[in-house]
């Protein structure tokens, strides 16, 4: 019998000799009905779902143990105040049907791609999830996989701009235009049509996959498509589980502040498109508060959409992400309701985390399809002593640790590498370790536990219950002072 190992991350801890209390967040618009925009995204999705579905079957291609149906989907016409071209959103939707496909649930992959170049329609292949990966996931899980490419529509040209934009350039531009007039441009954030395109693809799937009675979906995506994954859970009740990769930015204002302070009052070079649009100057402004009511999944807590956040969530981050600092989860993980787990991939950057997509998704999907519960872990800290309790006996426990003597910077691109230390297998399903306090610089550490489980081979599944009790070094945030030195 083939064996599979389950790897569990228990704690991410960054320490230094210097401690300062976290600042309290400032909320300009909380609990104010006149500026509550939490309805905007779900309302727009529902409005578009009431329009006729426009799609075409292009071809059907047999692969090894999988049949792929290629569709073209016209998901929506999106151009608030006629400010964006092209307005027609077009996507390639590829449905991978394994020979023994299970009923009811399917995986939706939010994929990237470019479909317009200098205003001319083109066809390109997405790079986040290539065909080989998608077909393999379908085979290994006996689950139908639906890849939706060209999220977002791109390149896009915004009014009065001469340069077509893509990816973060488009997102940041849409945010800036929204914040100029939030009440008049509710639909301007690019996150809204990105989510709605996924909802339209699910409509297509339900219509075309009636022999399998597909009526609910697991959603996954990377980076801003991971963000789309989160918001799809909020907006569409057909989403029953999510696996977002490399989007460690819930509670966006607190997370951005933490990133800025961690880098000594500078933004990472990857944030340049947002700096260029002046987003950094507006983080504490009322318009940004209104923006986050739409784009920040955590802001849907204490709204009618809060139950949507309780669906199963498998959050996968990179230890050396180019955008985010490794302990951003301290701002949101403990607040998330329902079933949740977290994987931190050691020695990995933002742009290569797709290498771990298949090995992360397969065990999660198999557990979800089989309705199997996840192992339970408890991590407790007392006077720099971390104690971890396991509900199942681990077969391997590793402590990953990285040090930076000069800065609170653990990016892979900056040469930081985590080193593993194997810990003896506990006899009583409990371990205790001492958390270091370096005399100089910073240390990051987390615990990884491997457990036995009977699923697909060579796959690791990582959980991370969060426990934050230690204070962090906190540099003053002064949004009005714009010091962009492009820390890289």
TrEMBL record:
<dbReference type="Pfam" id="PF10142">
    <property type="entry name" value="PhoPQ_related"/>
</dbReference>
<protein>
    <submittedName>
        <fullName>PhoPQ-regulated protein</fullName>
    </submittedName>
</protein>
<dbReference type="InterPro" id="IPR009199">
    <property type="entry name" value="PhoPQ-act_pathogen-rel_PqaA"/>
</dbReference>
<dbReference type="InterPro" id="IPR029058">
    <property type="entry name" value="AB_hydrolase_fold"/>
</dbReference>
């Amino acid at each position: 019998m083939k064996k599979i190992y389950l790897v569990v991350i228990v704690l991410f801890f960054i320490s230094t000799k210097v401690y300062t209390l976290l600042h309290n967040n400032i909320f300009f618009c909380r609990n104010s009905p006149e500026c509550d925009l939490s309805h905007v995204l779900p309302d727009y999705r529902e409005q578009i779902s009431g329009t006729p579905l426009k799609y075409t079957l292009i071809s059907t291609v047999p692969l090894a143990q999988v049949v792929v149906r290629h569709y073209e989907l016209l998901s929506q016409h999106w151009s608030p105040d006629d400010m964006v071209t092209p307005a027609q959103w077009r996507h390639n939707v590829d449905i991978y049907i394994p020979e023994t496909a299970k009923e009811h649930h399917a995986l939706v992959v939010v994929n990237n791609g470019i479909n317009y170049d200098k205003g001319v329609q083109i066809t390109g292949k997405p790079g986040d999830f290539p065909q080989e990966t998608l077909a393999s996931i379908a085979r290994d899980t006996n689950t139908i996989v639906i890849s939706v490419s060209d999220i977002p529509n791109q390149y896009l040209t915004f009014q009065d701009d001469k340069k077509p934009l893509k990816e973060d350039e488009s997102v940041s531009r849409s945010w800036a235009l929204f914040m100029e007039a939030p009440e008049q441009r509710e639909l301007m954030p690019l996150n809204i049509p990105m989510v709605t395109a996924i909802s339209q693809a699910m409509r297509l799937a339900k219509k075309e996959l009636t022999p399998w009675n597909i009526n609910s979906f697991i959603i996954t995506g990377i980076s801003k498509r991971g963000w789309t994954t989160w918001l799809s859970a909020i907006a569409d009740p057909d989403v029953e589980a999510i696996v977002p990769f490399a989007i460690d930015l819930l509670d966006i204002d607190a997370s951005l502040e933490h990133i800025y302070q961690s880098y000594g009052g500078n933004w990472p070079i990857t944030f340049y498109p947002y700096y260029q649009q002046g987003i950094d100057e507006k983080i504490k402004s009322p318009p940004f508060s209104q923006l986050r009511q739409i784009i920040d999944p955590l802001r849907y807590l204490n709204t009618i959409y809060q139950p949507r956040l309780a669906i199963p969530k498998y959050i996968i981050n990179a230890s050396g992400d180019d955008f985010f600092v490794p302990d951003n989860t301290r701002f949101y993980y403990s607040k998330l309701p329902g079933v949740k787990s977290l994987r931190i991939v050691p020695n990995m950057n933002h742009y290569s985390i797709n290498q771990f997509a298949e090995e992360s998704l397969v065990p999660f999907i198999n557990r979800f399809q089989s309705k199997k519960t996840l192992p339970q872990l408890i991590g407790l800290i007392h006077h720099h002593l971390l104690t971890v309790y396991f509900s199942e006996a681990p077969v391997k426990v590793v402590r990953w640790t990285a040090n930076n003597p000069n800065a609170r910077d653990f990016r892979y691109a900056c040469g930081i590498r985590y080193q593993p230390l194997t810990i003896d297998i506990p006899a009583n399903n409990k371990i205790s370790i001492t958390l270091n306090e370096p005399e100089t610089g910073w240390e990051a550490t987390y615990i990884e536990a491997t457990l036995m489980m009977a699923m697909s081979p060579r796959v690791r599944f990582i959980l991370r219950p969060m426990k934050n009790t230690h204070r962090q070094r906190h540099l003053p945030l002064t949004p009005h002072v714009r010091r962009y030195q492009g820390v890289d």
